Amino acid sequence: MFFITARDKLAADLKKKYDSGASIRALAEETGRSYGFVHRMLSESGVTLRGRGGATRGKKAAAA
Fold it and tell me: What is the pLDDT of residues 40-52, one digit of tens each?
């Protein structure tokens, strides 16, 4: 038999929200969990984590 646990439901919910654009930090705050917990849940769910974003050094100079 297969039972859906509260953890499985949380993982699916986090995955859906992350795939819709929510950040790990936002999800952690929303659920009252730590960043590390949310990161681990997403990783265990097979989510491809996005890069950190922000400015990248040297890109403008190379393009100019």
Answer: 999 999 999 998 8
